Structure prediction request, 174 residues.
Amino acid sequence: MRLFVLVLAATLVATLTIAIQHSFSKTDQKPTSQTSCANSIPTDKGMMMRSFADLKFTPLPDNPQMAFAPITGDQKEGAYTEVRIVRAGTDMPVHTHNVEITDVVIKGLWYAGADMASAKNFGPGSVIVIPAKLPHVSGCRAGSDCVFYHEGKGKFDFTPVKSKLLDKKSGAQL
Prediction:
């Protein structure tokens, strides 16, 4: 499966340079059903083939700075794969997901970590696996929109983690 992810990422990189701006501008189209989109992928002897230019991007309902194009499954129902585009300079504060998430960076400088101070940058070809329920930050550094292959082991969710208040004098959590 990891080899498939890397081959898919390499294929998407090849078409990305020409298609990225055009594809992101299509986010104002009427959203398509994830299930019908996944079912429309042509198959030949078990192979899945989809060019980047044919992907239909839809803004995430809770974050219009991020758009997704379904490949398989349905993020509202269970396990899924998709390609995501995130606007440069987008930051997601500390949050968790109930399932393991895998991202393969195709374009841009994506970052992730336990908090902003320790977050690391990941360029094209990088693979990030975030275990279920692990608090983390993520986002796309300024300069270029980020594109990545995204895989969820189950239904997608995004749960913000409330920061703990500290007593200014003692530093103890309140």
Remarks:
- The chain has a mean pLDDT of 79.
- The chain has one domain: 2-160.
- Residues 2-160 form a domain with the Jelly Rolls fold (CATH 2.60.120.10).
- Residues 2-24 form the longest helix (23 residues).
